[in-house]
Design a protein that fits this description.
Helix content: 40-55%
Number of strands: 0
Largest sheet: none
Shape: flat
């Protein structure tokens, strides 16, 4: 994939320019709100090794159930 360098934003093609009508803070807020909709991540960081695909699937299912439980708990608190 080619890389282009421009001295200023005015040198860029019009299609590549960032939407200036919406401030950067608003774009960041909207991206973060989308991330919050997904809920908190329960999966521990780092690399995990498994002896079999079944062990890996069981681990993934455990953290998926944990995440769903956290999201449901949060939604219940918000409803009250």
């Amino acid at each position: 994939m080619p890389v282009w360098k421009y001295r200023s934003i005015e040198d860029m093609p019009e299609a590549w320019k960032v939407n200036r009508h919406r401030p950067l803070g608003g774009r960041i807020r909207s991206a973060l709100s989308l991330a919050r909709l997904a809920g908190p991540l329960a999966i521990p960081r780092g690399v995990r090794k498994f002896r079999s695909i079944e062990e890996m699937n069981a681990d993934r299912d455990y953290y998926e159930r944990l995440r769903v439980a956290r999201i449901r708990e949060r939604n219940e608190r918000l409803r009250k």
